[in-house]
Amino acid sequence: MIWLTRILHLIFGGVFVWAGVVKAMEPMAFLDDIRSFEMLPDPYAGLLAMFLPWLEIFAGLAVITGWFRRGGLLLLNASLLVFLAAILISWYRGIDIRCGCFGSSGGATSNYIELIVRDLFLLALGLWLTFYKPRSSSQGLPTAN
């Protein structure tokens, strides 16, 4: 089972490294996507556009490598909760957003159900990786005295 958790760490962290790199490569496009949510005024939207991609990259690398893994998982799970809240609020307000989750979507508006399902899936995986404790292979075996 340890190999499965390693693969899942790689996938979960890799999703965020990829998302962060794509955003970092096009910060102005990502800024426009953030502005489409109509939640943060400038300069806060600009600060988020500069900071968030690097947070995703470093937290994703932490999850993949195991260095500060718990901290990386905490940051990414908290980010997913914030993303879900922003998506739900925008949907409730009837705003056509451009997610920008994996790079600029151009003028395309987002499918709210798809975004919510994807983020819930990622959150479920992130929470599982946070709280799953592999059983030791020696559990239940008698110990030699």
From TrEMBL:
Residues 2-131 form the Methylamine utilisation protein MauE domain. It is found in: Membrane. The chain crosses the membrane at residues 7-25, 45-67, 74-92, 112-132. Signal peptide: none annotated. GO terms for biological process: methylamine metabolic process. It is a multi-pass membrane protein. The keyword Transmembrane applies. The keyword Transferase does not apply. GO terms for cellular component: membrane. Coiled coil: none annotated. Its main location: membrane. It comes from the Bacteria. InterPro entries: Methylamine_util_MauE. Keywords: Membrane, Transmembrane, Transmembrane helix. This is Methylamine utilisation protein MauE domain-containing protein. It comes from Brevifollis gellanilyticus.
